[in-house]
Design a protein that fits this description.
Length: 363
């Protein structure tokens, strides 16, 4: 019974600083990155308050996602700062409770927050970011995406057949695609591949020229192949629609990123940026668990620690973490480091520091 009461007590001390952290850090993000731009959208582009409100709401999920690890760090640091400042941790140890057992509720909460953040980052952030981009470009700036793009992907579904069209280069103004690959899937299995040098938008249809068609079978591989000089493909997207269908890596789900990477790898095109986006989508949420460990240890001090000092320490730790993350992920996106390692380095460092601090505080 004593241990269950201990857990409830520690969790209660975590709750309010965690909620405060989400509100405080979200406010900092909004004030530092959004307010000036919102003012510019109103004064320069004449955006309505209703449009600005929707843009603001669709930007919130990404901001909140970044605040989960920060808030977990602040909550653990402030909760254990209060417990150690009032000598409650000393009393718990004197009562035979090990330091690892005292920290356990914080680690469990950190793990739960990490898992929730993983789901949030996958289900909420890509959609909201894509919609935010659409509102900004279509409704506020009234312009389009770049007329010339590299590595475009268009997915269409007709009954049980799914078609993925890939082009190495796309020019909206000319209505032209270059180095085209079309993969057709039947009931989830690839059935046919078409390749073509170029494609043109004419009279409401796409016409591809100088290509090959390969009929495939799961067991036998290529069953037949043929060349063609010209043919029309069932792609009912105008050049303007194709421009808007393209997403940035941050606007894709992990599944969409994997499909995109598969196409890029078949074309022997580097996909470092896309792999880094996948691993960052996993490692940033996991930081909540490691920050919980570090925060609890840093908050365990002999003297009483004020809330302002806890907030200051949190900001320093967060700054160092994101500075390292920015540097290593940049190396990963450039191919200087394997993407998995580049994105995992900040968390590996946090794990090492957390284990060292816990061992030191348990003595």
């Amino acid at each position: 019974m004593r241990l269950r009461l201990l857990d409830r007590y520690v969790l209660k001390e975590l709750l309010y600083p965690f909620i405060f952290g989400i509100a405080a850090f979200s406010s900092i993000f909004i004030a530092s990155t959004m307010l000036y731009r919102i003012t510019q959208y109103i004064t320069k582009y004449g955006a309505s308050l209703e449009t600005i409100a929707r843009l603001f709401m669709y930007n919130l999920p990404e901001i909140i996602n970044y605040t989960f690890p920060m808030s977990m760090l602040l909550a653990a640091l402030m909760a254990f700062g209060k417990l150690s400042g009032s000598s409650e941790i000393t009393a718990m140890k004197a009562g035979g409770v090990s330091y690892y057992r005292i920290v356990a509720p914080v680690l469990v909460v950190g793990f739960i927050v990490s898992m929730f953040s993983l789901v949030w980052a996958e289900k909420m952030v890509p959609f909201s970011k894509a919609e935010s981009s659409r509102i900004l470009n279509e409704e506020i700036k009234h312009n389009s995406r770049p007329s010339t793009q590299d590595h475009i992907v268009i997915k269409t579904i007709n009954g049980t057949t799914q078609r993925v069209t890939y082009a190495n280069k796309f020019d909206e103004k000319q209505g032209k695609m270059t180095d085209i690959t079309i993969e057709e899937f039947n009931k989830g299995k690839i059935a046919r591949i078409q390749t073509a040098k170029e494609g043109y938008w004419e009279n409401g249809t796409w016409r591809i020229v100088n290509g090959n068609v390969f009929a495939l079978d799961d067991q036998e591989g290529v069953q037949s192949s043929a060349k063609f000089t010209e043919q029309i493909i069932p792609l009912n997207f105008s050049p303007k629609q194709i421009s808007w269908e393209q997403k940035e890596p941050e606007e894709m789900t992990i599944r969409e990123l994997r499909e995109y990477i598969s196409i890029l790898e078949k074309q022997q095109t580097p996909a470092y940026k896309q792999w880094c986006e996948i691993f960052m989508r996993i490692n940033i949420p996991l930081a909540s668990f490691f920050f919980a460990m570090i925060g609890a240890c840093l908050g365990t001090q002999k003297q009483r620690t004020s809330s302002s000092i806890g907030l200051g320490i949190s900001i320093i730790v967060i700054f160092i973490y994101y500075a390292v993350m920015t540097f290593t992920s940049g190396l990963g996106k450039g191919g200087a480091l394997p993407p998995f390692l580049a994105c995992a380095i900040p968390n590996i460092l946090c794990l090492g520091i957390g284990l060292y601090l816990m061992k030191k505080k348990s003595v």
